[in-house]
Amino acid sequence: MNADLISAALRGCDMARAGRIRSRAARTIRGMRRPFIGGNWKMNTDHASARSLAHAIAEGTGADWAADVVVFPPFPYLLSVAEAIAGSPVALGAQDLSGEVNGARTGEVSAEMLRDVGASWVIVGHSERRHKIGESEALIADKLSMALGSGLRAVLCVGETRAERDAGKAHDIIAAQLRSAFAAIDAAAMDDVVIAYEPVWAIGTGITAQPADAGEAHREIRSALAARYDARLASGVRVVYGGSLVPATAKSIFAVDGVDGGLVGGASLKAHDFLALCTAATVGVAAS
Ligand code: PGA
Question: pLDDT digit string (tens) for 10-34?
């Protein structure tokens, strides 16, 4: 896929058409890892704006869209967003889940509840939950097992802080996060996993990782998967990038070999930008 088409997509020109062109390319050129793009709305929107954002995204994605496009609204709006995206290729995800099945866990939301309102995806181990809420590796591993064991698909987030990167520990940190999360996960369940490499210092800061750094981290993630499982599985799992992705930075990131799309925070709150990123992921990942 040529650079002009990617640029056109990033300018927001005729996004649906670019998506369809990319869709044909995907089936013929790649035939392997389907691009993934997730919109993590975090603790943003209200009921009305969540519904209209969901409607706009659903309308902007055609039936033959060649990427997994998933929106992750706040819990209270899941049901309304499910209704807004019904019949579109957009899937519904939650930003978190409980590691427990049900019962006396005040404030928690179970995997079954998420499925009950139409969610098929869930984010596990987001850095804001690791670092601001204090979730442990053990809890994250429990949540991942619960999600996959309950029929949800999971986006597992991993990534290093700035201090860890500066100390030369980024790869060790990511490898440890992966080891812990996947210790109890069978190879068969890995079809339902997307890994998001999200350097903590890039999230919400306006600083996107350099493509070379993202590429290196993605290679490390695949070699950790090969060590845990095998090379074939490692080359089949989707690994996406997250951290200040905007249309202007996406082109170079999505062109990196091994980057299969993105997890988007701030830019996912604007339908136009998010759709431009969806198109860039489908075009750019095919071209890489
Ligand atoms: P950001 O967030 O795009 O606002 O940096 C990404 C994320 O936290 O998933």
Answer: 333 333 333 333 333 332 233 479 9
In which residue are the tokens 């609204």 written?
Answer: 73
Q: What is the pLDDT of residues 141-198, one digit of tens each?
A: 999 999 999 999 999 999 999 999 999 999 999 999 999 999 999 999 999 999 999 9
CA 103–ligand 1 middle distance (angstroms)? 32
CB 19 within 8 A of CB 276: no
For the annotated catalytic residues, the residue numbers are: 126, 198
Q: Which helix (H) or strand (E) holds 15?
A: helix 15-25
Strands (E), 150-254: 153-158, 193-197, 238-242
Tell me the C-alpha to C-alpha distance, in Å, between residue 11 and each of 88, 116, 208, 251, 260: 23, 38, 19, 11, 21
Coil, helix or strand at residue 205: coil
Which residue type occupies 214? A
Q: Which atom of ligand 1 is nearest to the CA of 203?
A: 5
Structure tokens belonging to residue 201? 């210092």
Residues with Cβ within 8 Å of 122's Cβ and at least 6 positions away in sequence, in order, are 93, 94, 95, 96, 97, 111, 114, 147, 152, 153, 154, 155
DSSP 131: I
Task: Give the count of beta carbons closer than 10 Å to the beta carbon of residue 67.
Answer: 24
Instruction: Give the three-class secondary structure for 184.
Output: coil
What is the number of residues in the chain?
A: 288
Cα Rg, the chain, nearest whole Å = 18
Strands 68-72 and 90-94: parallel
Query: Where does 3-287 sit in CATH, by number?
Result: 3.20.20.70
Which tokens hold the place of 263?
């997890």
Question: How far is C-alpha 141 from the chain's CA centre?
Answer: 18
Mutate to test the pocket of ligand 1, among 43, 122, 198 (most ligand atoms within 8 A of CB): 198
